[in-house]
Amino acid sequence: MTERCVTHSEAQTEALGESIAQRSGALSAIALKGDLGAGKTALVRGLARGLGSADSVTSPTYAIVNEYRGARRVCHFDLYRLSGGDDLWEIGWEDYLASGALCVAEWCDVAREMFPPSTLWIDIEKAGGDTRCFTLRWPEEAEAC
């Protein structure tokens, strides 16, 4: 199922993340694609809050992965500096997935082949000012939610 959403502020992008959190039960991963400044981290901030986390959400650019505690743990990856699926495997991607955490990855195109079938794919486009257009491609398992 494909869904399109538009936000006009960072607060609305975070609210979209909270809404996605409420529908994330069947998901193993969320793959984010968007340019610098598109709102990927703002979306994750809302997602983590929607899953009960009070942790500070920041881009994991240099850490590669940040973890946020809540009703469901969120593991927030930035794949920008990785060279492919082998690098992602080496940092324990499969272990994170097997742990039951929701794995959210920015710059997902680096290792598309590593994402499980239960992945929500989100493309984010800047549309001028603070307006963002989101295309969400939900996996079949989540459509029944």
Describe this structure in words.
The chain is an alpha/beta fold and 145 residues long. The chain has a single domain, classed as Rossmann fold. A seven-stranded mixed beta sheet has the order 1-7-6-2-5-4-3, covered by helices on one side. A hairpin with a 5-residue loop joins strand 6 and strand 7. The longest helix is centred in the first third of the chain and has 13 residues. The protein starts with a strand and ends with a helix. The model has no long low-confidence stretch (mean pLDDT 92).
Summary tags:
alpha/beta, 145 residues, 28% helix, Rossmann fold, seven-stranded mixed beta sheet, 7 strands
For the record, the count of structural domains works out to 1
- Helix/strand-derived category reads alpha/beta
The total of beta strands comes to 7
| Helix residue percentage | 25-40%
The CATH architecture comes to 3-Layer(aba) Sandwich
CATH superfamily: P-loop containing nucleotide triphosphate hydrolases
Q: Radius of gyration from the CA trace?
A: 14 Å
Question: Which fold name fills CATH's third level, the topology?
Answer: Rossmann fold
What form results from the Cα inertia axes?
Answer: globular
End-to-end distance, in Å?
11 Å
Q: Uncertain regions: pLDDT < 50 for 5+ in a row?
A: none
Q: Please outline the major beta sheet.
A: 7 strands, mixed
